[in-house]
């Protein structure tokens, strides 16, 4: 309620009270019958009905003012309801949170007034258990941040480029997520099996340059053809070639003693 209305109410209320008392005195039964109806509220309170009408959501469609405000001053004391009266903490983990009005800042527009606490994390986990579990079980610099650090408004998905430069110019968020498949565990990196050589070359530039220059058949392979799975993995020559030479040729020598470098073969 705005100050103006309060002043207005403060003058009005005693007059209504006086009127009620007069009516009561005048009435043969002398019954105090000043039961308020939902339609009465707007006569003295303009803001709340307007909020509810415009953005009340289920607080508009499922209940009325009187379901929450069951009594009125000056006789009544049950004027402001606790959320738990209807949202029983036994029903939902979400309803066990403290400070409902810290996020749902106005009960007369409970969703439209949603303002997320900047450090919210476990609170979000009351509904998004999976994401909270990922982030808690996979230590990373993302895990040190709150959920709202990235999801600045409810339901909004941030672009990686808001906070990061790409490894290679032109990479999109879709590209990022092809390797960093889950931003809630960013260090679990699983490049897909069609990852271009240039993507690996963004960091391993010397190896990529050698490889693509090479005339031997390794030069035609993608990095991920050999380096499969979670980054980084290192294969053994024998994984693919078995034992191509007899013991006579090898004489205890390692493959690379003769073949130099898988990325720059010598034959
Ligand atoms: C005749 C004018 C009038 C009507 C009609 C009226 N109110 Fe009020 N209401 C007031 C005034 C004046 C106050 C401020 C009382 C005070 O601060 O002592 C108030 C205070 C309140 C408060 C705050 C209570 C508190 O503890 O701070 C609520 C909630 C409220 N009204 C709800 C309603 C609802 C719901 C209706 C309709 C069912 C309604 N009022 C109808 C005049 C009215
Ligand atoms: C879902 C329950 C709920 C409904 C429905 C509801 N209110 Fe409220 N109302 C509250 C709560 C909770 C507060 C206290 C808010 C706070 O402390 O910030 C409140 C506060 C108020 C106040 C006091 C505001 C102030 O600044 O002191 C008034 C007046 C009021 N409501 C009127 C109404 C009217 C009129 C309606 C119907 C159009 C209505 N309310 C519907 C829960 C409700
Ligand atoms: C008199 C009962 C009552 C009280 C008190 C009450 N609510 Fe509700 N609320 C409901 C009902 C009924 C619904 C619709 C069913 C549901 O979603 O559970 C609802 C729905 C909501 C919604 C979803 C709205 C939507 O449009 O989807 C939010 C958010 C909410 N309540 C928050 C609160 C908060 C915060 C409080 C305390 C300030 C509160 N409620 C107090 C009855 C109440
Ligand atoms: C950290 C912020 C935060 C706090 C604290 C919080 N809520 Fe919510 N609440 C949300 C978000 C976010 C949603 C989802 C809104 C949507 O679906 O658009 C939500 C949705 C709801 C809903 C509708 C969805 C449903 O599951 O029925 C209700 C009802 C609700 N809250 C009640 C409460 C009550 C009661 C409290 C206090 C016990 C509370 N909230 C505390 C953020 C919060
Ligand atoms: C009361 C339950 C509830 C709470 C609390 C809640 N959310 Fe949600 N959230 C939902 C629902 C329901 C959806 C819609 C789900 C859908 O569309 O699949 C949603 C959607 C989302 C989405 C978008 C999902 C998508 O697929 O686009 C994000 C991101 C999100 N919430 C983050 C958060 C964060 C961060 C918090 C804490 C500040 C939070 N939520 C708190 C219920 C909640
Ligand atoms: C709102 C900002 C923000 C967004 C959006 C964001 N990040 Fe981050 N990210 C950070 C911050 C801050 C760090 C820590 C940087 C530091 O300390 O140098 C970080 C660190 C990382 C790390 C290193 C983690 C570690 O523990 O060393 C990876 C990988 C990463 N981000 C990938 C991504 C990807 C992929 C996306 C998109 C899906 C993304 N980030 C979206 C802010 C963000
Ligand atoms: C570093 C930024 C960052 C942080 C911190 C973060 N998220 Fe996300 N979140 C994202 C990005 C980016 C996506 C989009 C992922 C995609 O499209 O595959 C996302 C997606 C989601 C979704 C949609 C469904 C899904 O899993 O893809 C939900 C729900 C969600 N986040 C909840 C949370 C919750 C809860 C927290 C805190 C425990 C959190 N997020 C922390 C960046 C972040
Ligand atoms: C080809 C797979 C791949 C793609 C695509 C990819 N990344 Fe990475 N990213 C990695 C690898 C591997 C690391 C290094 C991890 C390590 O240090 O062990 C890394 C590390 C990071 C880091 C940590 C800091 C750093 O630079 O070392 C951030 C931040 C990051 N990536 C963000 C992104 C963003 C944003 C995108 C999309 C523009 C993206 N990544 C695309 C594989 C990829
Ligand atoms: C963002 C930079 C970055 C990108 C992109 C990247 N790497 Fe790496 N890579 C690193 C860093 C840093 C290390 C060393 C630290 C470590 O082991 O995590 C490394 C280590 C490796 C190793 C292991 C080295 C050893 O001695 O164990 C291999 C193999 C490797 N990367 C292959 C690849 C492949 C294949 C790709 C493309 C799918 C790729 N990397 C993309 C940064 C990157
Ligand atoms: C034909 C398979 C194959 C291909 C293709 C391949 N590698 Fe390798 N890579 C290997 C093998 C085998 C080793 C282990 C060599 C050893 O035992 O010393 C290795 C080692 C590495 C190492 C760690 C040792 C070092 O030389 O620094 C990195 C990093 C690496 N590769 C990155 C890459 C990148 C980036 C690409 C693509 C540009 C690539 N590899 C393509 C097979 C391959
Ligand atoms: C992931 C499988 C893989 C690994 C690991 C691998 N190679 Fe190969 N290598 C290939 C493929 C595929 C070819 C091409 C075969 C063909 O086309 O007949 C090849 C071809 C070769 C050739 C013949 C080159 C040519 O152009 O004829 C040599 C020599 C060779 N590899 C050596 C090695 C050595 C040494 C290592 C370990 C350092 C190694 N390879 C690791 C898959 C692999
Ligand atoms: C003593 C040096 C030497 C060692 C040690 C050696 N190679 Fe070779 N390798 C050669 C020579 C020379 C050729 C070319 C033979 C030819 O063209 O017939 C060759 C050819 C190959 C070829 C291609 C065969 C084909 O049919 O085209 C592969 C694959 C290969 N080596 C893999 C390996 C692997 C794997 C190891 C380790 C287990 C290894 N080599 C150890 C000397 C060596």
Gross geometry: rod-shaped
Determine the structural class based on helices, strands and strand pairing: mainly alpha
Distinct small-molecule ligands in the complex? heme C
Helix coverage percent: 40-55%
Enumerate how many helices there are, as a single number. Answer: 16
Q: Helix and strand succession?
A: HHHHHHHHHHHHHHHH
Report the radius of gyration as a whole number of Å. Answer: 34 Å
Largest sheet: none
| Sequence stretches where pLDDT stays below 50 over 5 or more residues | 1-7, 22-33
Strand proportion: under 5%
Strands, count: 0
On the 0 to 100 scale, the average pLDDT is 90
Domain count: 3
Report the end-to-end length measured between terminal Cα atoms: 86 Å
Condensed summary:
The protein has helices at 3-26, 38-44, 47-55, 58-61, 65-68, 100-103, 122-125, 129-137, 147-150, 173-179, 197-201, 205-213, 223-226, 237-241, 247-250, 255-259.
Q: What can you see in these coordinates?
A:
With 267 residues, the protein is mainly alpha-helical. It has three domains: 3-82, no CATH class; 122-179, no CATH class; 197-259, no CATH class. Helix content is 40%, strand content 0%. The chain has 16 helices and no strands. The longest helix is centred in the N-terminal third of the chain and has 24 residues, at 3-26. It is rod-shaped. It starts with a helix and ends in an 8-residue tail after the last helix. Mean pLDDT is 90; it is low at 1-7 and 22-33. The structure holds heme C (HEC) (12 copies). The site of one heme C has 19 residues, from helix 1, helix 2 and helix 5. The site of one heme C has 18 residues, from helix 11, helix 12 and helix 13.
């Amino acid at each position: 309620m705005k100050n103006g209305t309060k002043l207005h109410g403060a003058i009005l209320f005693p007059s209504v009270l006086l009127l009620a008392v007069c009516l009561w005195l005048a009435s043969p039964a002398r019954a105090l019958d000043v039961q308020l109806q939902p339609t009465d509220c707007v006569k003295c309170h303009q803001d709340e009905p307007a909020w509810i009408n415009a953005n009340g959501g289920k607080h508009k469609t499922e209940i009325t003012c009187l379901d929450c405000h069951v009594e009125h001053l000056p006789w009544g004391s049950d004027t402001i309801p606790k959320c738990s009266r209807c949202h029983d903490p036994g029903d939902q983990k979400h309803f066990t949170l403290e400070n409902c009005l810290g996020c749902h800042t106005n009960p007369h527009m409970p969703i439209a007034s949603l303002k997320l606490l900047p450090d919210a994390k476990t609170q979000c986990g009351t509904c998004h258990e999976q994401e909270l579990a990922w982030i808690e079980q996979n230590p990373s610099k993302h895990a040190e941040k709150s959920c709202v650090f990235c999801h600045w408004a409810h339901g909004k998905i941030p672009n990686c480029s808001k906070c990061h430069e790409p490894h290679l110019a032109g990479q999109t968020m879709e590209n990022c997520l092809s390797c960093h498949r889950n931003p809630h565990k960013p260090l679990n990196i699983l490049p897909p099996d069609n990852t271009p050589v240039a993507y690996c070359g963004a960091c391993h530039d010397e190896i990529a340059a050698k490889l693509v220059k090479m005339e031997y058949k390794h030069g035609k392979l993608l990095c991920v053809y050999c380096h499969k799975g979670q980054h980084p993995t290192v294969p053994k020559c024998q994984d693919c070639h078995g034992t191509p030479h007899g013991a006579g040729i090898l004489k205890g020598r390692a493959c690379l003693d003769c073949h130099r470098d898988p990325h720059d073969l010598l034959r």
